[in-house]
Amino acid sequence: MSRSAPEPSHKSVPKQTWPGGAARSNAGAGQSDITAAAAGAGGGFSPHMGIQLQRTIGNRAAAKLLQSRPVSVSLHAGGNSPIRRMPIVKDNVHRRANEKDSPESIIETSKLSLSERNALVIDLQSEGNEALLDAILKEWGAAPIKDEDKLEHLFELSAQIAKLRDKTPDSYSEEDSAGLKKIELELAEAQSVMDQNGNNPSVQIYRDVIFSLTRELAKLGGKGAEQHAPAELNMQVSPGDRQGYRDDMKRMGTWAGEAEAEKMAEIMHINAPIFVISKGTFRLVTQVGAAYKGVGSLALVHLGNHYEVVRGVQDGTKKGGESEWLKTSKSGDCLFESMLLIHHNGVRKSEEKLQKGIQGMRKLVADGLSDDAIDESIQELLVFGDSAGAGPNTSKLVSGRRAEADQKKQEARRQKIREQNEANVRKVDESFINERESELAELETLDTFGIGKAKKSYLKMRENDPTSQATFKALRELGQLLREAKLALRRQRGDFDLDFSQYEADESSEKPAKRSDETFDRPKNLAERLELEAKARQDTLARDDIKYAGSKNNGKQYVITVNGVNDEFVLDKLGQLVRRFTRRNVSSHNRDEIKGDKHDEERGMYPSNLSPFPRARDKQQARGTGSNKIKNESPEMHHVQGHKPSDYLSVTADTGNAKNPQGKEFDALATYLIDLSYIDPENISAIYTSLGMRYFMLDVFEGDRKDAVGKAEQEQKKSGPSSQKMAKDHKELSEKEWQALLDVIRTKEVLVEGMIPEDALTKL
Questions:
Q1: How high is the pLDDT of residue 500?
Q2: Residues 326, 309 contacting (CB under 8 angstroms)
Q3: What pLDDT is attached to residue 179?
C-alpha cells in the first residue's frame, strides 16, 4: 500500500526523399449537418461528434451551442474545460447540488486540484457512488479505464499470494513456482494497464494494491519494486540512506507504509488485515502480523491517502456492512494511530496519551526496522516517485536520484538525436541535393532562396566534420530552404487553388471603425468574449489592404494575403494575422501521436492534456511561480510558464526554429511545418504581439498592461535581456512573469488549442 498521508482539503516513399519528408492531402470541412446533429442529438451526442463539431464551428462556439444540453460533452480539441459544471455537496454521502443547497456547502468539482480530485474519487468509490463518479469523470474529461478487468483481477492475485505465505521459496513445488511466475507476469501486466490509464483518478486505488502486492511478492522470492525500475534509476541503498530513513520515521507527521505496519504488528503481537474499498465493496489486499491473532475482528482500511479502522468486515463485504468504523486524525500519523486503536480493541486514549504512544512507537519502529525492509521501502519510493511526506532525508534522496535518472534519459535522448542527425548527413550527399534542386527547376524565383550558397556551405562542413553540430545546423537550414522553395513552387503552380476576393463593402454600409487596442479588454463573460472576438475577426476581413479566400481545409478559417507582403496568413481568434505556416519542435509523445502505431486515437499532434499517452498528461508544476503577482492567471500565461498538462500546443511564427534565451535552438526529435489553414480561428492565439500579450497573457493584470508589454518589448531588444533584472527594476510582475513575456516575444509564440490533424503537418 502507499504511505499514510494527510488528506488534501503512410504513404510509401519513392526514390530518395528528404529525411522525414512526406506528402500530405487536403481535407474539407462541412458545417450544417454536424451543427444540426449537435442541436438535436439529445443524449446520444457522442465524443466523436464533439470532435467534428469543434473542428467545424470552433471550441468556444461549440461550447456555447452545447451549454443547454442535458449531458456533459468533452470536446476532442479544446481541453478539459467542461460544457456543464458538476456542483456537488456531501451529506452522509455525496450527491448533486440543487437550488436549495447553501453556496458554502457546494463543491465545484471542476475547480479541484489533482490531489483533491484523487481524494474525492476515493470517497466516491468508498461510498459505492458509481453513477455520480462516472458523471464527474466525464466532466473532467477522463476517459473510461481501459482493461479495468485486469486491474480488478489484482484482488484475486492477493488470494493467490496468501496461499504461498506459509511456505519458503526452497519448499515450493513446481506448481508453486509456476504460480509465482504467473503472478509476476500478471502484476507486470496490471502495471502496464496503470501506465496506459495515466492520471485517471479512478486508478489510484489499484496503484496502491500494486504497491502492496509487489512487496508481498518480494517476500516470497519474487521480483520486488526493482522490476518496475527504469534502467537509468540508481536503486542502490547505502547505510547512510538507511539511517536517514530511520531518522525521518522518528519525526511526527512522517508518512508510514506497510513496512512500518508490519513492524508495529510484530511489536504489539497483533494481526491486522488491510482492506481497500472498490466499487463500494471491501476487498482484502494483504495483512500484517500473519503469525499473530487478530483483535476483535478489527482491520485497517486504506483510503488512498489515509488509514482508518473498521470492525466486522471480510473480503466482499459491502460498505455499510461493517459493525463499527473508527475514524483517525487526518495527519501523517494516521497509520500509527490506527494500529494503536487495533491494539487496544478500538478503545480510544486521551489525546495526550495518544501522542505519547505514537512518539514511542515511532522510535521503536524506526530502530527495529530491518535493513531489507528499509531498502524495499526506499526502492518503492524511488520507482514510484511518491516521496511527499517521506521526511527530509528520504525526500532529498528520492528527488535527487530521480533527477539523475531524468538527466540520463535526456542524455540518451540527445544521443538518439545525434545519431539521427548523423544518419541524415550520411544520406544527404551532393547527388541527393542535386536531385531535390532539379525538382524545383520550374520555380521562377528559385535564385532568391540562396540554396546554392547553403548547399556549398553544408557540403564543405560535411566533408570537414560530418558529426559536428555546425554540420547538423547547416543541413537543417538547407532543408528549410528547399522546403520553402517547394512551397513557393506549389503556389506558382496554383496547387492551393484559392479564389481570392477583394473585400467590397455594400455602398450603403459604413466602414467599420478601427478598434482601439489600448482598451481592447478580454470580457470575463463567455458569451461577451465570443461576440467581441467574432467582431474583431470580421473587422480584420474588412481591411482594404488584404485579399482573402475561405480555407479548403477548415470551413471557419481564411487564407489571407496582404498587399506588398509575399506571404500567406490566417486569422487567430482575435482577428490578428498569423503566418499560415508555422513550426514546432516535437516531443517524443508528439512523434508517437503522429505515427499512430501505439494508440487508437486519430493521428495528429496533441497538447499534453489530450494526449492518448497517459504519461504526457502527468502533472508538472512550473518552478519559480510562488512569487507571481498575477492571481488566477489566464490559461495562456499558465501554459507559457511551463505548467502541465496543458490544452495548448506552442508553435513559432518565426521563419526559423525557436531558440532558448541564450540564442541556441532547442533540442528536438524532429521539426514539423504546421499549416494553420486547417485550424479554426477560435483555436489560434497569437500571444507574442503587443495586443496578444495584453489580451491573452495579462488579461487579469491590475496594473498598466500597455506599459508592462512595452517594457518587455524594450528589454527583449537588448543584447542580453534579463527577467531577473526586470523583476528587480519593475516590481509589478515577478521574474517568472517577465520571463514569460520575454519568451513569447523571442519565439514569436502562437498557441493552438486542441489537436492538430495529421494533414496539417509536414516533417522538415
A1: 42
A2: yes
A3: 83
What is the pTM assigned to this prediction? 0.53
Angle CA 126–131–137, to nearest 5: 85
Give SS3 for 680: coil
- DSSP state, 577? E
Residues 6+ apart with CB under 8 A from 735: 624, 627, 723, 724, 726, 727
CA-to-CA dists, residue 549 to 317, 568, 675, 677, angstroms: 66, 11, 15, 11
State residue 664's pLDDT score: 58
**Residue type present at position 40:** G
Distance of alpha carbon 4 from alpha carbon 304, whole angstroms: 8
- Report yes or no: 390 and 378 within 8 Å, Cβ to Cβ: no
Alpha-carbon separation of residue 119 from 35, 207, 303, 332, 473 (angstroms): 38, 14, 8, 15, 49
**Dihedral angle sign, alpha carbons of residues 188, 190, 196, 200:** negative
Hey, CA dihedral for 612, 613, 614, 617, is it positive or negative? Answer: negative
CB contact at 8 A, 367 and 264: no
C-alpha to C-alpha distance for 46 and 217, rounded to whole angstroms: 43
Q: What is the pLDDT of residues 720-748, one digit of tens each?
A: 889 899 999 999 999 999 999 999 999 99
Using only C-alpha atoms, what is the Rg of the chain? 30
Q: For the chain, give the number of residues.
A: 764
How many CA atoms within 13 Å lie on the side-chain side of 483?
A: 26
Q: How confident is the model at residue 665 (pLDDT cuts 50, 70, 90)?
A: low
Grid coordinates representing 149? Answer: 478487468
Dihedral of alpha carbons 484, 488, 491, 493, sign: negative
Peptide bond into 230 cis (omega under 30): no
Take residue 165 and report the three cell numbers written for it: 505465505
What type of residue is 202?
S
Give the N- to C-terminal CA distance of the chain in Å, as an integer: 48
Question: Which strands make up the sheet holding 324-326, listed edge to edge?
Answer: 281-288, 272-278, 298-302, 307-311, 324-326
Q: Are strands 107-108 and 272-278 parallel, antiparallel or unpaired?
A: unpaired
Angstrom CA distances, 158 to 2, 212, 228, 301, 429, stand at 16, 9, 19, 15, 61
Residue with grid cell 495562456, as numbered in its chain: 636
Q: Where does residue 342 fall: left (phi above 0), alpha (psi -120 to 50 degrees), or beta otherwise?
A: alpha
pLDDT tens-digit series, residues 6-61? 544 433 333 333 333 333 333 333 444 444 444 444 444 444 444 444 444 444 44
Between β-strands 684-686 and 749-753, what pairing exists: parallel, antiparallel or unpaired?
Answer: antiparallel
- State the cell numbers at 267: 511489536
pLDDT category at 85 given cuts 50, 70, 90 is low
Domain range list for the chain: 148-397, 441-496, 526-616+629-688+748-763
Residue bearing cell 463485504? 317
Amino acid identity of residue 26, one-letter, is N
∠ CA 448-454-458, nearest 5°, is 170
Model confidence at 381: pLDDT above 90: no
